[in-house]
Every structure is written in C-alpha cells, then in structure tokens.
Amino acid sequence: MQTPDGLPAEIDLSRPSAARVYDYFLGGAHNFEIDRRLAEQIASMTPNLADTMRSGREFLRRAVRVLLDAGIDQFLDIGSGIPTVGNVHEVAQAADPQARIVYVDIDPVAVAHSRELLAGNDRAVAVHADLREPKLILDEARASGLIDFDRPLGILLAGVVHFVPDADRPADILATLRAAAAPGSFLVVSHSTFEDQPQEMLDAQRLSARTDTEITLRSRAEITGFFGDWTLLEPGVVHMPLWRPDSPSDVDEHPERFGAFGGVARYDRTAG
Ligand SMILES: C[S@@+](CC[C@H](N)C(=O)[O-])C[C@H]1O[C@@H](n2cnc3c(N)ncnc32)[C@H](O)[C@@H]1O
C-alpha cells in the first residue's frame, strides 16, 4: 500500500524515525519536519554528530573494500538505512559487477527508497525486516536467491545493534547470524559506546528514546563479544576512524569523539 506521494502507508509521521534522522544528518532529502526537529535538537547538544555519522559510513566503506579484497561477493547489510551516496552495492558492484547484496531495514521509508534506487539492479534487493528476528531475515535472504549460505558472505551490522536493547538479547541475535554463515565469512559491526564520551553525548543518547528505536550504548568488551569466536582482523575493535584509515591524516587527535567502536572478524573454523 502506498500513499498518494508514493510513501508506504504504514509509516508513522507522528514520531521521528531513526533512519530519517540519520538521513537528515547525512544531507539526504528523505526526512520530515518531525525528524528534522529532533535532529536539530540532538545536533545542538552534540555538534559532532553529523561527523560521527559520516565517520560511520566511511568505516563501513573501508570494511566492505577489505571484504571485497578477500574475495567476498555477497553481502547481507542489516540496518542499511536510507540510501545515500556510496551505498554498499555501489562500492561492491564497482569492484565486482557480480556482487550481490541483500539490504534489510526496519524502517519502511528506508526500504521504499532503497527499492526505488535498486530498480533494474537484479543483484540487489531491499527487505523490510527486524534484526530482532534474525531467522526471518535469514529466510528472506535465502528466498531472494541472491545469497548462497554455503559460500562465504559478509554480514554488515553498521550502526544498528545499538538499537537492540539488552532485553532483546543482542548477543543471541548475533550468534544466530554467525551460525548461518560458512567458514571464510566476515562480520562487520560498528556500535555506539559510552566509553571515553563527554556528558553531552550521553544526554543526546537519551533523546533517542523519542524515536521508535532507542539507542543502548555499550562497552568495548560487550561490542567485542558480538564477534563470538570469530577472528578479529587487525587492529581489533577500535574507535571507528582508527580502523584501517585510508591515510594517517584521516585520524585526528580525538578519534573517540565519534562515539562508536568498529571491528571486522572472519570465521576461520574449518567446516565439519
Ligand atoms: C544509523 S542508521 C545506519 C545506516 C547504515 N548501516 C550506515 O552505517 O550508514 C541505522 C539504521 O538501522 C535501522 N534499524 C534500527 N533498528 C532496526 C532493527 N531492529 N532491525 C532492522 N533495522 C533497524 C534504522 O531504521 C536505520 O536505518
């Protein structure tokens, strides 16, 4: 079902949405007054936030390139968001036109815009699903015919696991996703943290409670736990700009100001 302006009928315009607030911070056009008001309020408390979000996208792009170099040609990108420049399928298919991508997001606006962008691309789809139901996501990915779970794949969870509260057992969700992957697969996670953060960042986090998706900040140790027994690539779980920067000059004196850790791990265990 769509509204006359082409938006999915189920979108709730009475509350801001995390995906649309994020889109506004990235300079996108897929957001509404209610999202912009919350974004401006958060921005006035944490002037770094737009930079943080860009830093998150850059981390994701660097990680995807490392996976492509390792031969990964299929990606499951959960919490993929509203498409902006340099989406995963653009980075991946520029390097390998055969690369296949399944995007997943809980936000109907993000999914609708992703579908619009992907029209005509038979190697990428957008699925409307909830990370808290990982088995459904795996079923959808299989049903898409784009992901072969007997071969290595890249599971991307950039800036999304912090939307899963402890009560929804994020570690179990991650374990379910890892268990579906073949040896040689990679897991990419970036996640907001309270470690090394000023008070205004912690206050802004409380504002996220106004969206349908409140953020849970976690420690480096908790975030590292999401990789299970997979092998962390160097330099481990670090403040995002420190993860294999394109150039040393991309890292300033305060990489912690972006408020999130990022890491990449590989499933090394041999099958059987
Ligand atoms: C901060 S954005 C990150 C977008 C993209 N991964 C990136 O790194 O640029 C987080 C996205 O996660 C989505 N999200 C939040 N909770 C989710 C859930 N339970 N299941 C799936 N997606 C979710 C939001 O709708 C939003 O689009």
TrEMBL record:
CDD domains linked: AdoMet_MTases
Organism: Micromonospora antibiotica
Record SUPFAM superfamilies: S-adenosyl-L-methionine-dependent methyltransferases
Family annotation (Pfam families): Methyltransf_19
GO molecular function: methyltransferase activity
Name of this protein: SAM-dependent methyltransferase
A biological-process GO annotation: methylation
UniProt key word Methyltransferase: yes
Keywords: Methyltransferase, Transferase
